Amino acid sequence: MHIVEFCVSNMHHGTDEVMRRLEKLPDIETIEYGCLGNCGECYLSPYALVNGESVVAETADQLYELVLAAIREQDEERSALDKLLDDL
Which residues 6+ apart lie within 8 Å of 14 measured at CB? Predict the structure, then answer.
């Protein structure tokens, strides 16, 4: 399960639609907070936390794609680490 966190104060960038789109996908849990403590990013750009890692984009549509890419990358890294540990 992947956790994607959004700041309610960032919704003016269109991240509310990103959150709705992600909610429809399997293995993704979305959480909306009043504040994630990244006020500079929040004010300037659409962003989200993907499993605790910040993902920042220029547009909401780009954020959606970058969130999916971050999830794929994290899955690949986890698989590589699991394989490495299995080989030990």
Answer: 46, 59, 60, 61
